[in-house]
Amino acid sequence: MCYEMTEEQKFSEKASDYGIPQIMHRPVFRYVRYGELGGPFLTALMENDFMAILREADGINKRVLENWARFIYNALPSGCWGSREQVIRWSENGGMSQWDGKDRP
User: What is the pTM of this model?
Assistant: First the structure.
């Protein structure tokens, strides 16, 4: 039997490779794919707001901030992070679905 991974499973595997906590995989995927923001910590990360990141991160995410930086820089589309304006635009345009026309499940 042949098993093909879903897009979300592939994304989760890549996030794991970077040491991103499992509990964050789905919120990050949904943001990147569909533009759905998943809480104040994720929003702060995508907006590159260092003070908010430190304020909003739980203990697990604080310990892996360097992993987050590598993951965001190397694995996420550059248009989805970097400033509040970019995050708003990404979210309003529906994430990556703006290019392929796939609706949110």
Answer: 0.88
* 20 and 64 Cβ atoms separated by less than 8 Å: yes
DSSP state of 21: -
Cα separation, 61 vs 68, whole angstroms: 8
Contact 68, 75 (CB under 8 A): no
Distance in Å from the first CA to the final CA of the chain: 26
Is 42 a residue whose pLDDT tops 90?
Answer: yes
CA distance 43 to 7: 22
Instruction: Look at the block and give the residue holding tokens 């991160």.
Output: 57
Indicate the pLDDT class of residue 105, thresholds 50, 70 and 90: very low
Phi-psi category of 48—alpha, beta or left, where left has phi over 0 and alpha has psi -120 to 50? Answer: left
Q: Is residue 25's pLDDT more than 90?
A: yes
